[in-house]
Specification:
By secondary structure, the chain is an alpha+beta fold. It contains 9 helices and 15 strands. The chain has helices at about 1-10, 15-25, 100-115, 180-190, 275, 280-285, 285-300, 305-315, 320-350, and strands at about 35-45, 45-50, 55-60, 80-90, 95-100, 120-130, 135-140, 140-145, 165-170, 175-180, 200-210, 210-215, 220-225, 245-255, 260-265. The protein has a 5-stranded antiparallel sheet with strand order 3-2-1-4-5. The chain has a 5-stranded antiparallel sheet with strand order 8-7-6-9-10. A 5-stranded mixed beta barrel has the order 11-12-13-15-14. β1 and β2 (about 45-50) form a beta hairpin. It is elongated and about 105 Å long.
């Protein structure tokens, strides 16, 4: 009997022993860690996850995705194993709080940083607008398009639900700032078919004290007040009206900033013609643009304009008698070469 009691005592295993054993082999979990876990119980507002801790960890429904989730079954299934982010330390019950949203959030910022580095164009639907601009989602992150970077004549409210091409202006995870440009995406696409020195037709979209904004095929270019005419202008309002149709020349393309600079001044046959004789400016626009391009090419190569023109036009055309003389000289040269060849053959035979 004594022996039996001693044996039972030796093999006894108390709750304290079990807790000590768990402490010995338990992994240390800290907020910010990413761990593997298995779903073993679905709850009305979340799920219990086995990550190897003493107590099952809990993930609330609002932490299950970067997007809105109303029901845990939209994201998780029983016995599913996946990665979880440890959001908080253990509470008073020893339970950790987990998150999937935070993992998606970190990876989304990593993707948009890469897209910005590649200067990629992305597309997204506008889901809301406010006084400052429009709101979109990129990789699940909320992005903002400032009103000045929305290139459309539609009211902002009418953009909701529309898909827009966009370029990145600012990607700052620390400040939670994701700023995009619709205008820059359109300008870049349009720029593929534009060139400095090209004459295009546009209409006046808006007039400011510093110049006029010209719509050229869906994108806006600036005709600065200094590029309207060689003559002095007090304000563009004295020269243009909204919806005026103009011929303008492109003098600069800035894809990085999404800007197109225009000029009518460079198209003036005589200084001041844009103010005195606008139809003549438009009639001679292509001709003046050619001269402008020749001048730019000459300046770039350090040559005179006449040298560039001579290279473009080629050697002067020969008159008819010059052509006859050249043909005669070529014929005589040919006959002499034939005689020389025949003499060499005779010499060889002798």
């Amino acid at each position: 009997m004594t022996t039996q009691k001693t044996a039972n005592k030796n093999i006894g295993f108390t709750h304290e022993d079990f807790a000590a054993l768990l402490d010995k082999y338990d992994y240390h979990f800290s907020p910010g860690d990413v761990v593997a876990g298995t779903v073993f119980s679905m709850e009305p507002r979340g799920a219990l996850i086995d990550i190897g801790a003493k107590t099952a960890a809990f993930i609330p429904v609002q932490e299950m995705s970067i997007n809105r989730v109303d029901n845990p079954e939209e994201v998780l299934q029983p016995n599913e194993t996946r990665e979880f982010f440890i959001l908080t330390d253990e509470n008073e019950d020893g339970q950790l709080t987990l998150s999937i949203r935070r993992i998606e959030y970190m990876r989304a910022w990593e993707r948009v940083r890469q897209l910005q580095k590649e200067d990629a164009t992305v597309r997204s639907n506008v889901f809301a607008t406010n006084r400052g601009g429009a709101l979109v989602r990129i990789e699940g992150l909320r992005g903002f398009i400032p009103g000045s970077h929305i290139s459309t004549r539609e009211a902002k409210e009418d953009l909701v639900g529309q898909e827009l091409p966009l370029k990145f202006l600012e990607v700052d995870e620390d400040r939670n700032r994701l700023v995009l440009s619709h205008r820059r995406a359109l300008v870049e696409r349009k720029m593929n078919g534009l060139a400095v020195g090209q004459v295009v037709i546009g209409s006046v979209r808006g007039i400011k004290p510093y110049g006029a904004f010209i719509d050229i095929g869906g994108v806006s270019g600036l005709l600065h007040i200094s590029e309207i005419s060689h003559d002095h202008i007090d304000t563009p309002h004295t020269v243009f009206n909204v919806n005026d149709e103009l011929k303008v020349m492109i003098i600069d393309l800035d894809a990085e900033r999404g800007r197109i600079s225009l000029s009518t001044k460079q198209l003036e046959p005589e200084p001041g013609d844009m103010l005195k004789n606008r139809p003549l400016v438009f009639e001679k626009a292509e001709e003046m643009a050619i001269k402008y391009r020749e001048k730019r090419l000459a300046e770039a190569e350090g040559r005179t304009v006449s040298e560039v023109v001579a290279e473009i036009e080629g050697p002067p055309a020969l008159e008819e008698e010059d052509l006859v003389l050249a043909a005669t000289e070529e014929s005589v040269s040919y006959q002499l070469s034939v005689i020389s060849y025949q003499l060499s053959v005779v010499s060889y035979q002798i």
